Amino acid sequence: MLSTRFTDLLGIDHPIVQGGMQGVGLAPLAAAVSNAGGLGILTALTQPTPEDLRNEIRKTRELTDKPFGVNLTILPTINPVPYDEYVKVAVDEGITVIETAGRNPEPYMPLFKEHGVKVVHKCTSVRHALKAESVGVDAVSIDGFECAGHPGEDDIPGLVLIPATADQLKIPFIASGGFGDGRGLAAALALGADGINMGSRFLATVEAPIHDNVKQAIVDGTELDTILNFRPLRNTVRVHKNTVSTEAVEILNNGGKFEDVQHLVAGARGRKVFETGDIEAGQWTVGMVMGIIDDIPTCHDLITRIVTDAETIITDRLAGMLTAGAVARV
């Protein structure tokens, strides 16, 4: 078993977290990840109302007695979102881990601390991680340029971002972006992280609540099959490269405004992809890690395999190199 500061902090068996994915972080997936020893995450804003979130939390508790968390992404929206009410439901329901993203979680920190909630804040840069640490979060999830969704605007890949974070951050942190197997977990730990966060890899699992066609598209895809949209708007997002996202990128790169692509990138169209399996129906999020995803296992089998492979790499392959080197020098 791999024990880290992160597993000790949250009381989980394995240093693997399921990312809080919009439309995907539902009870069956979160419970499956937690039952396998990782940390499953419900996505609060996938639920239409705070009361729907309450019901989803209770549904998850019926499926697992292990720790699980709730993701709360706080962003400017056209229609007001009752963030305070979602937070209150999570706290009232006894959630012990909340993953925050987007805006600084500082306004909610006194409430979280009062109720013993551990806060993991998602960041895309060292400076943001240090700010999160300064306002009292318990851990950070640092997202490299390879990640699905919003990688920030600095374009720093994990190979640099993870050790740069380890050099300055005092609290535990997990690494996100490009992780999908035991090699990645071993590498993240070697670079100074305390675990990994995976989104796209959990999309391609039996329990993921999306159409099988989408799962197969991820298996068939390569590291070249994503595209960065919204770059001219400085709101970069990594998505699947299809006809819709490619058209939107071309419009924006040629001077278009958000209003010119809004009909292409609407969230309703992305949800249709997951629901119907038509991968050309809209813009949908996935990471470069597609290049190393080649099957659709259960969450239990996936997590077991990742941890076993990482342990083998650490104890056999790497240790074997050290021994061989020592013998060679004698």
Automatic annotation (TrEMBL):
The keyword Electron transport is assigned to this record: no
Lineage of the organism: Bacteria, Bacillati, Actinomycetota, Actinomycetes, Micrococcales
Name of protein: Nitronate monooxygenase family protein
Gene3D superfamilies recorded: Aldolase class I (3.20.20.70)
GO molecular function: monooxygenase activity
Source organism superkingdom: Bacteria
Keywords: Flavoprotein, FMN, Monooxygenase, Oxidoreductase
Naturally occurring in which organism (per UniProt): Brevibacterium daeguense
One Pfam family per UniProt: NMO
